[in-house]
Task: structure prediction
Amino acid sequence: QLDSISSSLQDAQFNARSYVESGDPKYLPAYRSSAQQLQPQLQKLRALVADNPQQSQNVLLLERSLEDWKSRWDSALAPPEAASRKIISAYQPSVALRQVQQRETQLLRQRSDASAANVRNIRLALIFGTLANFAFLVIAAVLIVRAENQRIHEKEAQARLAAIVNSTDDAIISKTLDGTVTSWNAAAERLYGYSALEAVGKSINIIIPLDRRGEMESILQTIRQGKEVDHLETERVRKNGTRLQLEITVSPLRDEAGQVIGASAIARDVTERRQMEESLRQLSARILQAQDEERKRIARELHDTTVQKLALLSIDLAKLKSAHDPEKLASVSQHAQNLTTECVQELRTLSYVLHPPMLDELGLASALKIYAEGFSQRSGIALDIDVEGEWQRLTPEAEITLFRIAQESLTNVMRHSGSTRAQIRLTRNGGIKLQVIDEGRGLPGHIQSTNSSSVGVGILGMRERLKQLGGSLRIASTATGTTVEARLPYSRGTDGKNSNPLGG
Result:
């Protein structure tokens, strides 16, 4: 703006001097035009320096100097004052203008220096800011990646824990301290009959029998104290109303501050174990009773047969001492010999029933054949034995198990079936299979089920013997006969061929 004022001022001065020196009137319009441009240019300059008091003062001085200069020239150029024109032609307002220009130049230089300094500062600030931002971004990225990895690990851990909880056979339930269910795994659904949707949010009392509500309150009170309830045997009720025998462990759940906020219960169904324990107790009692009865039977048989015959033998021996008649002596001697033979046979039979020596010496097939002959003679029941092919020796456990099953089955045929015929089949069809078949009146339906509590100790004993060897027992009975079938699996030999059970 100062350059414009300076240019207008120079044009006005040039035209004024030219008019003074030449007197040519053409210079007057050019002078007036240049002089008139000074005022609007000064107004613009005032607006530009309004924020700088010192520069505004310089502009004010410049404006007064220009007004004075213009006033003088306007008066000097007005005709007919030609004599004074040369006097004022040298008057110039350049001093004030140079002061303004110098000050402006100084300000521009200061502003330029300040601007350069600001630019440098801004550049440094941008550089350091960029570096700081980059470092911040790097740190933030590292923290975000670390947090994301931690979140992924936690999520994976939670997923694994959830998979373990849902795949376990134990029912796992969590609840608040007032007994409201908060989680319910798949095993709990199977055990109690309620789905997770049905149970979560409900009171735990849906599975607590009425007579066990006080027990649950005691458990929750123990949990509130931060203690654990370990391996408590109790009862719970299923959705269908049936009761369960359970073993439960209840532990307190804590928040991050360590405060107890709930409880987690792990329950295991021990109903079957309790039933088995009860069955074993009953079986043990019945075995003891059967042992007593068997001892009585053996004692009675010894007393009624062998002991009586031995007493007669003693009498016959006494008679031999006083016998003088050869015929009487021969008769008594023959009678004594017969009694002795019968006693030996009865004792041999009794010992064979208790434990067959032929089983250890000859194996299962031969022992069954020998036992069948003696059984037919004692019972009068026609007994056929069918052994498939050549029979290899089995393990002692397998042989005694199958022999006792045949022995027990034939004893039942003799005592209960009323059959006059029976058959033993020993085959290797898909495993070792022993069948005892009769043509009697059959067994009642509840006896055929080997799980029935009314099954005789003999049948339970057969079943348990086979179970220990991985085998099974099946009883099929009709009004025309009964078949007892015992099976034992083959084991696979190292040569790839089928071998007998358990090696052997």
About this structure: Residues 193 and 240 are 7 Å apart (CA to CA). The chain is about 60% helix and 15% strand. Residues 81-91, 448-455, 492-499 have pLDDT under 50 and may be disordered.
